[in-house]
Protease (Streptomyces alboflavus), 122 residues
Amino acid sequence: MDGTTGHQELRRVAKLPATCTGPAPEGPVATFDVFWQSYEENYPFFAAKGIDWHAMRDRYRPKVHADTTPEELFAIFSEMLDPARGHALRGGVRRGTQRRSARCRPARNWTPGSRSSSSHAT
């Protein structure tokens, strides 16, 4: 299609991969890995914002361990996403000075390369 930002093609596989048939990994380290991989595969603006997502993983993953609390993990995720300020959090649950996102939408006043703190909810 003309005007699309990307093209994805899906194909049926004969069966689920082995990693999909067993129990899902649990705990803070597994949560970190899923969080990082989800952004790696789906967030399109790392290059535009000058974010080295692989370096971000190298910096923050060693801070996560089996006894990392949900609050500590949330703080780590928040720090990791801070450079991507072009998106504003809308809705969510406030915990102290931070907000847990119910959903993430582009800010109305966002422009590529912008790092305005007015478009970043805390």
